C-alpha cells in the first residue's frame, strides 16, 4: 500500500472516530436534556441526568481534539496537489476549535446552576427559579455558539476541502461536489440563525439533508483511500 493510500485511510479513520463522540455530545445529549422554552424542565433533566451531561462534555472535548488530527492528516494528504487550498482548509477548521473547546464552559455553568457542579453551594444566593433560568440560559448558549459561530467554519472549510478533492486526481471529483453542497448547508444554517432566526427551522430541515453529503468522503477515505498514482517514470514512454 503506497503512502498516499495509507494517509487517506488514516484521515478517514480519524474522521469517523471523531464524528462518533461528536454526534453523541452535540445531538443526542441536547435532545435528552433540553426542553425548548421551559427552564424548569430543562434544569430538572440536567439534575436527573448529571452523568449524561458530563459524558457529553467529555465526548465533545474528545471529538474536537481528535478532529485537530483530521485536519493535519488531510493537509498532509492534499499539500502535494493543492497546497494553497489545503492550507486554507486547515486554517478554517482550526479556527473553530478554540470556539468549540471554550464553549464547553457554558455546559459546565449550566451544570453548576442546576445544582450538579462543584460551585453549586456558592450559587445559593440565587433562588431556585433563578438558578433554573440561568442553567437553561447557559445550556442554550452552548447550542447557539455551536450553531452560529463554530458551525460557520465547519461549512467554510469544506469549500477548500472540495477544491483539494477535485484537484487531487486520486479521489473522485463528485465527492468534492458533495462537500460543496454540505458546506452550503452548514453556512446557511449559521447565517440564518444569526440574522433571520424566524426562518432557522426551515433552513435546518433542508440542511439535515445537505449535511449528509459530507458522509461519502469519510467512507471513501476509510474504505478505498486514494487511487494509487503512477510515477512520472512509469508514465514516460520506454525507449
What does this structure look like?
The protein is an all-alpha fold and about 240 residues long. The protein is about 80% helix and about 0% strand. It has 10 helices and no strands. Helix 1 (about 5-35) packs across helix 9 and helix 2 packs across helix 5.
Task: Tell me the span between the first and last alpha carbons.
Answer: 29 Å
Fraction of residues in helices? over 70%
**Major sheet size, sense and barrel closure:** none
- The count of β-strands is 0
Strand content: under 5%
Number of helices: 10
In short:
Helices cover 79% and strands 0% of the residues. By secondary structure, it is mainly α. It has one domain (3-227).
Highlighted features:
elongated; 239 residues; 10 helices; mainly alpha
How is this fold's topology laid out?
Elements lengths: L2 H31 L5 H10 L1 H29 L4 H32 L13 H29 L1 H11 L4 H23 L4 H11 L4 H9 L8 H4 L4
Helix pairs in contact: 1-3, 1-9, 2-4, 2-5, 3-4, 4-5, 4-6, 5-7, 6-7, 7-8
